[in-house]
Amino acid sequence: MAINISGISKRFGAFLALDKVDLHIQSGELLALLGPSGSGKTTLLRILGGLDRACGGTITFFGEAALGLTPRDRQVGFVFQHYSLFRHMTVRDNVAFGLDVRPRRDRLPRAVISERVARLLELVQLAPLADRYPAQLSGGQRQRVALARALAIEPKVLLLDEPFGALDAKVRKELRRWLRRLHDEMNITSIFVTHDQEEALEVADRVVVMNNGRIEQVGAPGEVYDHPASPFVYDFLGNVNRFECIISDGTAKIVSIGLTMPAIGAEPGPALAFVRPHDIELIRLDAATGDAGGGGVACARVRHIHAIGPTARIELDIEGHRFEAVMDQDRLRCLGVRAGDWCGVRLTRPRLFSSNSAALIQE
Amino acid sequence: MEPQEASICLAPPLSAVKPPWYAFVLGLAKVVSLSHERGLFRATRGSRGMLVRYSILPGFGLTLGISMAWLGLIVLVPLAALAIHAGGLGWSGFWAEVSTPRVLSAFRVSCTTALAAALINVVFGLLVAWVLVRYRFPGQRLVDALVDLPFALPTAVAGIALTSLYATNGWIGSILAEWGVKVAFTPLGIVVALTFIGLPFVVRTVEPVLQDLAPEEEEVAMSLGASRWQTFIRVILPALTPALLTGFALAFARGLGEYGSVIFIAGNMPGISEIVPLLIIIKLEQFSYQGATAIGTLMLVLSFILLLVINLLQAWMRGRHHVS
Predict the structure, then answer these.
(1) How far apart, in whole angstroms, are the C-alpha atoms of residue B165 and residue B167?
(2) In this predicted model, what pLDDT tens digit does every residue of A170-194 receive, in sequence order?
(3) Most buried in the list A26, A155, A241, B221, measured by CB within 10 Å?
(4) CB-hemisphere CA count at 13 Å for B114?
């Protein structure tokens, strides 16, 4: 176990940014803290890095209590969203900074420093730009310098605060794959903060979904995506259709679209049904006639079809209630459904959550 | 340096002769309008090597013309007239006027005291700006407003107030006198007055830069293991240096030209605590207009060289940090 966080709280005035957070981070893993703004993810990262103080709780780094330690003694590398390079220093001097400022007795000989800096610049593919100033670099290059600078002090833990947030979409994609490869080579325990679910799911070994200062769910990307533990995680990760329904006598009824589904043993009361767009099945209406409404098939109007790339996004409408389905272009072509047509709809894998307690009722 | 002083000595000759600046401004206006007609300054998009980049607001020719005419009228004409008038002395006459021991020592006093005051202001002005930008405390607005007071206060008032405070029987002067330090009526008194006058220049130039300085750079330095002192010296100070230099230059230039507050506290002993602006007034009172213009011209040249050097230094620094 690399990092143990238990009961960490942080309050800014009346605002509770972190509410008794517990988290265990494995040595060598790449962990994503994912959540909307204000969820406390950056605050947690800053507390880990020693840039903010916690109001309560404990943190241990490799078995050693960390909260009393200065950022220097924690041996963490911190990378900020806006790079925060020292603009009056060259790329080389930026990377060497952490080694140059060591107390004289710990400082490495000049030759060793410059050799290590050269190696790092090679690693981040910026060796030819060593003598440039930050203002002369692109956003992606600046972020790589910031990363090299953080790695120069050979940190035990690497903390990245929205590392790709300020970059454009293409550079962002390249850089996050590159970060993944780099992590696989170096194997430093790394934690990065992001509000971009795609980024978290693609890069991280494990994803921590946060909301309102609490951890909603921790798990591998596939697990978090396929088995969300709460309505919030469902809403936040990927597209999802959300239907209000009422449970009574072992069935859940979605009033708005007139569909029922079994909910055996569930407490009666209001509930929420979540269905991913690719779990909505479209049926040609002539095949669906006769059992529309009763056997889990509803009649829907196709409002619009967005057909770009291999998949098509179909906007559906049942009496003014809109939702979305996704399917392969090929399948859509077989179905022969067009905008304005009527078709049958079946929800294949709905998940029910209680409206009152947000607890999972049924897979 | 100070246009008022220059115009005092220039009033008689200028009113006697046909005003020479009339032709100068006319000529300037003609040059600008001609070049505008020929499209020399016309804003064009995309074509390289032109004088101007494309701008949303039109009228570069007009605005440049007005700026140049205005600058000429307000700054260049009085200064040129000063130089021309001093030129009437010839090199040897000029040299004879400015190389007397009294003039030279006045220059020495003016330069050293202005330099010392500007340096003190750089240190404490930075401190004041830091406190005002980085911390929130009760009465902050009041302190903020206080900083500008030296701008607004008539300098003579400041001089008299400082003199009464620092005289050997004054509140501060009496305490200092016990330690054997004499402030009023010595060059040290001049430094005190100039420090008072120059403080807002440094505070007001550093403040906006400090506001823009992201605290993240300091946090990065901390997380990389830098101590507070190292963070200040290696991260914050270099970012502030251009603004500090500007503040220093302004405070220094103002200190060279300052008259009102200094004459009360200085004691004005020739060779010891007599400043250049005072010497100019003395020359004028003795109807030595040429002597006054000669001293004024030398001061002008010195100040100009100094400001030019500081500007070049800044341009060089900026060129390093920003995209060329």
Answers:
(1) 6
(2) 888 888 888 888 888 888 999 999 9
(3) B221
(4) 27
pTM comes to 0.73
pLDDT in tens, B106-147: 999 999 999 999 999 999 999 999 999 988 899 888 998 999
ipTM exceeds 0.90, yes or no: no
Question: Residue A76: closest CA among chain B residues belongs to which residue?
Answer: B223
**According to the 3-state scheme, what is the secondary structure of chain A?**
CCEEEEEEEEEECCEEEEEEEEEEECCCCEEEEECCCCCCHHHHHHHHHCCCCCCEEEEEECCEECCCCCHHHHCEEEECCCCCCCCCCCHHHHHHHHHHCCCCCCCCCHHHHHHHHHHHHHHCCCHHHCCCCHHHCCHHHHHHHHHHHHHHCCCCEEEEECCCCCCCHHHHHHHHHHHHHHHHHHCCEEEEEECCHHHHHHHCCEEEEEECCEEEEEECHHHHHHCCCCHHHHHHCCCCEEEEEEEECCEEEECCCCEEEECCCCCCEEEEEEECHHHEEEECHHHHCCCECCCCEEEEEEEEEEEECCEEEEEEEECCEEEEEEEEHHHHHHHCCCCCCEEEEEECCCEEEECCCCCEEEC
Give the rounded distance of the alpha carbon of B164 from its chain centre: 27
Chain B CB contacts of A51 below 8 Å = 219, 222-223
Cα B50 from chain centroid? Answer: 33
Burial B243-262 (b: 16+ CB within 10 A, else e): bbbbbbbbbbbbbbbbbbbb
Residue segments in chain A with a per-residue pLDDT below the cut of 70: 1, 286-295, 357-358, 362-363
Backbone angles phi, psi at B62, to 5 degrees: -65, -50
Query: Chain B within 8 Å of A136 (Cβ-Cβ)?
Result: yes
A93 CA: distance to closest CA in chain B (Å): 11
Alpha-carbon dihedral sign for residues A92, A93, A96, A97: negative
Q: Which two tokens stand for residue B68?
A: 């140049």
From B217, B235, B321, residue closest to A135, measured CB to CB: B321
CA distance B223 to A149: 11
Angle between helices B3-16 and B276-285 (to 10 degrees): 30
Q: Write out the H or E segment, with its range, that includes residue B130.
A: helix B101-134
**Two tokens at A184?**
């696989």
pLDDT in tens, B249-271: 999 999 998 998 999 998 888 88
pLDDT at B44 over 50: no
pLDDT tens digits, one per residue of B149-205: 888 889 899 999 999 999 888 899 889 988 888 888 889 999 999 999 999 999 999
List CB contacts of B124: < 8 A, sequence separation 6 or more.
Answer: B199, B202
User: CA-CA distance, B186 to B272, in Å (whole number)?
Assistant: 8
Q: In A, which residues are within 8 Å of B317 by CB distance?
A: 88
Is A90 within 8 Å of chain B by CB?
no
Place of tokens 């049904």: A273
Q: What's the mean pLDDT in B209-217? A: 86
